[in-house]
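From the pipeline queue, job 12 of 40. The input is one protein chain; the requested action is below.

Action: predict structure.
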Amino acid sequence: MTINYVVNVNGKEKHIIITEQLVREVINFPDDENCPSKFPERMVKGCLLRMGYNGDINKANYLKANFPRVYKFLIHSVVSALSHRKGGYDAIRDYQMNMVVALVLNKKYNFSHIVFHYMAENITSKSKTWVYPRFVQMILDHAYPEMERDEQNDLLVQYHMDNESLKQLSRYHPKHPEPKTKVEFF
């Protein structure tokens, strides 16, 4: 399967062909086409229990609030960065939980397949919002290195974690108290 698309590069229409292999190469995921993109349900649920999940494991969605604090940031990172969602970051779908399980158990996983699948699905839908915009930009930069940049307007500003960010994470669940000590950053 491929994505054939026409993009505007420096005022000229150019064709781009995106494949799962290109996603793997450009984003530098440490996987290959033989890696699994789904784990057995029993393995996923066993990992959930070992992680301390205290919700119903037989539902299609898992709630981030039901995980211990040590896993919330990992889950939030997976859902924010590798999910095709445009909002609603508390519920975790089964494919996202497979990603978390792969990271927690240090198993091989085909992240490229998942990203490519949802890129292709998004392009064929009527959605006007791109999923994985940073990955799309990386692919365009790879395909057209001569593309002109407007660094004043094109770059996304990211803020580093600080104590206020950590306090917001701890307030995520009303039963968790606010941290009393400040975190020392390197």
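Job complete. The first strand starts at residue 3 and ends at 9.
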